[in-house]
Amino acid sequence: MSSFGFWDLFVALLSLLCCSGPAEMTFEVHIWPEKLVVEPTGSKRVNCSTSCAQPDRGGLETYLTKKLVDHQPQWQQYLVSNISKDTKVICFFSCAGKTLSKSLNISVYQPPKQVMLKLQPTRVAVGTSFTIECRVAAVEPLESLTLTVFRGQETVHNQTFVGAAPVPLEAATTVISTAPQGSGPLNFSCQAELDLRSRGGDLIRSISEPQVLQVYEPVQDNQMVIIVAVTSLLLFLFVTSILLCGIIGKHQCRRETGFYGVLAAWQRLPQAFRGQPA
């Protein structure tokens, strides 16, 4: 026997030893989609399939409401409904006495439907601080949310949230900023972004109504000095006029009832009385 024929025989024998046994023992189970996100009380279709040509049995294990929509020997399609919280469903198939399964994680989400932005105050002087507050109604999952505050097209601040919450929660972020020099009116907005791509969903965005901050230049120092000086002068003139009026009034009173009045009365007395000694 040639060396070539001997080598072929050796390879065939090795293949027979390695691959002996029923083909069904190496079957696989698949579930589609592999990740799934739904809104509360939503419903989705789930497909279970296997590579086993003639499976003994198969199905979908879950506490959710399920309905078999269609099926063939190697696959089954279910409508899963009344999904109210994060859960897991399991597809399984048995083939030649062996059972395999594949699980699917289902995540429930609440999109950011309403984003509110508030400026406090809405009119400030250059160099003065103001507060930007952004709030979004109940969102789930919270750890997938990012709030971003914009000034025009420029990002001022963004915040992500860590940790899952047992129920949908309102999310908020607050920024304290300073009105820049020579800026004029400033437009602010806030965007809520829920990233569900890692869970098999999409990137959901919602943005607030824009808010305008009025910025004005403060009064210059020299102008303030002029204002103070004019005010002080007017106050001085006012006080002086009051004092002059008081002095003039007293002088007039003295003329009528004081020394001048006595002198006039003395002159009106008869000469005889004026000549008598006291």
TrEMBL record:
Membrane topology: Single-pass type I membrane protein
A GO CC term assigned to this protein in UniProt: cleavage furrow
One Gene Ontology molecular-function label: integrin binding
The protein's name: Intercellular adhesion molecule 2
Residues spanning the membrane: 224-248
Stretch forming the signal peptide: 1-25
Compartments (UniProt record): Membrane
Family: Belongs to the immunoglobulin superfamily. ICAM family.
